[in-house]
Design a protein that fits this description.
With 159 residues, the chain is mostly beta strands. The protein has two helices and nine strands, in the order H-E-E-E-E-E-E-E-E-H-E. The protein has one domain. The relative contact order is 0.19.
Length: 159
């Protein structure tokens, strides 16, 4: 097969045109899991609740399956350093039932098993561990926040 420089350039141009993310930084994603002692499986996850991407803020995800099941949420956030998402304890980004802002500090997976484990009303820094990348978080508490997360919004960058 004889590929010329011109042919190779054309193929690369097509790849960029039809898949602009070929060399771009990976897009962030948030996966919320519903965890409960009543669900099957050794890890306690019933199943992936839903995957959210920065393309859309979600003012109300109570319509999705598993929302009204017993349990609390855990979160996995992927993407580049600076990816930022805010979880709200009520629909339509209402702040009166608590919120949690998560800002990635590296490009590793951030895994948060306890959404209520942060100091109230202040920024907390968490270094990278074997199980999670580094991140910072701001938590405005509300009773049972981790059970009632109902909307989320993305920010472009908040390093």
């Amino acid at each position: 097969m004889n590929i010329t420089i011109r042919s190779l350039g054309f193929l690369i141009s097509l790849m960029v045109l039809f898949n602009g993310s070929a060399w771009a930084a990976p897009e962030a994603q948030l996966k919320l899991w519903k965890k409960s002692e009543h669900y099957y499986g050794s890890c306690g996850h019933c199943s992936e609740f839903i995957t959210f991407s920065p393309a859309f803020d979600t003012p109300d995800f109570t319509e999705f399956s598993h929302y009204f099941l017993d349990g609390y949420y855990t979160a996995d956030l992927t993407g580049p350093e600076g990816a930022t998402v805010t979880l709200y304890g009520d629909r339509n980004f209402a702040k009166d039932r608590g919120l949690l802002v998560i800002v990635k500090k590296d490009d590793r997976l951030v895994s948060i098993q306890d959404l209520e484990s942060f100091t109230a009303n202040t920024w907390s820094e968490r270094p990278a561990t074997e199980k999670s990348g580094a991140f910072r978080a701001y938590y405005q508490p509300f009773p049972q926040f981790a059970r009632n997360v109902a909307s989320l919004a993305w920010e472009q960058s908040a390093n």
